């Protein structure tokens, strides 16, 4: 397993990033200023983007794994990698997600705890209703962990 930071032509991974955020317009708001990481195990399995919020906090903005490789630990490996990488630069890491119990439990397993929420984020920022499985996404739930 190899994790590399991608410095140029970040949009080559747009198809994978769109799995976690289906709006190219929203991805464009953070991709250029974020650090993009790609995980390879033979071929590309997962990507994630980390952005700086301020001098104490970074945010995991997007993490996505090809569907056929989900549940095999690639997303977990990326979270562990970026947490370790940024712990000497930042005190906290944020991640925002919809109110989906399985996704919240996934992040909580890495030490993230609910921090705050932005009411109606998904309904206000996307042109159509957003769903994760059969759950409509409405509020953005932010989780935070100490690095």
Describe what this molecule looks like in 3D.
- This protein is an alpha+beta fold and 147 residues long.
- The protein has one domain (2-146): Gcn5-related N-acetyltransferase (GNAT) (Aminopeptidase), CATH 3.40.630.
- Helices cover 28% and strands 38% of the residues.
- The chain has helices at 14-20, 24-31, 74-86, 101-108, 121-125, and strands spanning 2-6, 35-41, 43-52, 57-65, 92-97, 113-118, 130-132, 135-137, 140-146.
- It is globular, with a radius of gyration of 14 Å.
- The mean pLDDT is 95.
Summarize the structure.
The protein has helices at 14-20, 24-31, 74-86, 101-108, 121-125, and strands at 2-6, 35-41, 43-52, 57-65, 92-97, 113-118, 130-132, 135-137, 140-146. With 147 residues, the protein is an alpha+beta fold.
Helix fraction, binned, reads 25-40%
CATH class: Alpha Beta
Low-confidence parts lasting 5 or more residues at pLDDT below 50? none
Compute the number of helices: 5
Number of domains: 1
The CATH topology is what?
Aminopeptidase
Describe the sheet with the most strands.
Answer: 7 strands, mixed
List how many beta strands DSSP finds. 9
Considering the protein shown, what is the CATH homologous superfamily? Answer: Gcn5-related N-acetyltransferase (GNAT)
Q: What class do helices, strands and sheet pairing give?
A: alpha+beta
Question: Could you tell me how far the N terminus lies from the C terminus, measured between alpha carbons in angstroms?
Answer: 23 Å
């Amino acid at each position: 397993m190899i994790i590399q930071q991608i410095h140029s032509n970040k949009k080559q991974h747009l198809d994978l990033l769109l799995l976690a955020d289906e709006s190219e317009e929203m991805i464009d708001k953070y991709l250029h200023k974020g650090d993009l990481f790609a995980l390879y195990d033979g071929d590309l399995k997962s990507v994630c983007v980390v952005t700086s919020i301020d001098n104490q906090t970074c945010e995991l903005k997007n993490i996505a794994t090809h569907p056929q490789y989900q549940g095999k630990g690639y997303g977990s490996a990326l979270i562990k990698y970026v947490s370790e990488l940024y712990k000497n630069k930042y005190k906290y890491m944020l991640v925002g997600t919809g109110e989906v119990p399985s996704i919240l439990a996934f992040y909580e397993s890495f030490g993230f705890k609910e921090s705050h929420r932005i009411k109606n984020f998904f309904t206000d920022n996307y042109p159509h209703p957003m769903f994760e499985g059969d759950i409509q996404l409405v509020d953005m739930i932010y989780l935070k962990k100490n690095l």
